[in-house]
Structures are given as structure tokens and as C-alpha cells.
Amino acid sequence: MVPRTSRQGRSFTGAWKYYAHDKRTAQGQEVRTRERVGFVHTENLGGIEDDCAAIGLMIDTAKRSTRCKAPVYAFSLGWHPEETPSREEMIEAGREALAVLKIQDHQALMISHTDTAHPHVHVIVNRIHPETGVAAVLSYDQPKLQAWALEYERAHGKVYCQARAFNALVRQVAKEQDG
User: What is the pTM of this model?
Assistant: First the structure.
């Protein structure tokens, strides 16, 4: 599995338009179909299943914080082309990744794409907690997700990214020598 993080952003609508619809044409025209979307799943959005309505609630929740200028956080989880995770497995992986980042209680929208050889899911997260109004701090998000992805692959019987396993071993040896 390959986790990738994006820069934190300001526009839930912009993120949603990018992930929930087709890419722009070669001429730069926006295409508004959903041909590449496999499924949409919501987390912590009060039972709202419609992604457009979910984005609206995320925007309203983000307005609770006047200090956070970039409430949108997004990441993706990509499986190896020979893997075929089910919808439920992709959702569960998304939930596990949210927990690793300690944002499992935040509003999130998962969008699966079918337009590449490798199965993948994008997760749009509201950094503003829906109850406390406090923004999540996502320091070291990529290393946390990489460590989780290595354990995920080990638990599923095959490590596809040998470089990640090697780097984890190097970090562990360095930690032991320092400490």
C-alpha cells in the first residue's frame, strides 16, 4: 500500500470537485461526470451519505474555527495492481489510517477511483473537530502513514514496498544505537 498526503487546503468544494468528478479534458474544460468514481463513503457526518451534502456540513463545521485557515486535509491510499481490496476493506483501511493520525473522530469523505491499474481511495478530512472546534495538528503525517502501511502489508501477507521495509529497519537500528 502506498499512502500519499496532499498539502492542507482551504476549499472543501475544490477538493470534492477534483476527487468526486472526472479530470479536466486536454483543452482544460471541466468534466462533471462520475465515471472514475467507484464509491463514496462518509465518516462522522451524522448519517449524511450524499457527498455534496457532506461537503456542505464540513464547510459549516470548519467555520467554527476562525484561526484555522487551511481546514482541508487529504490523503490517498493506493494498493498494488495485483491486489483487489473490496469496498469494505478500503473503507476499513481508511478508518485505520485516520486512527493512526488521531483524527478518527473528524468528518471525512472517502472517494474510490477506478481510473488506474491500482485500486485507490482518497480521503478528504476536516481538520476542525466537529464537537470541540479545535484544529487537528498533523505533524509527521507521512512517516506515520508509511509505518502503518508497512504493518498493513505485513498483516496481509506481502510487503510490496521493499524500500519502505528497508527504511524502517534503518530507522529502528539508528534508534537503538542512539538510545
Answer: 0.89
The Cα 71–Cα 41 span in angstroms is: 20
In the numeric block, which cell numbers belong to residue 101? 493520525
With pLDDT > 70 as the criterion, what percentage of the chain qualifies? 93
Burial 106-119 (b: 16+ CB within 10 A, else e): bbbbbbbbeeeeeb
Burial class of residue 89 in the structure, from the number of CB atoms within 10 Å of its CB (0-12 exposed, 13-18 middle, 19+ buried): middle
- What pLDDT digit, counting tens, does each position of 143-168 carry? 999 999 999 999 999 999 888 878 77
User: Which cell is 48 given?
Assistant: 449524511
- Answer yes or no: are the C-beta atoms of 35 and 22 closer than 8 Å: yes
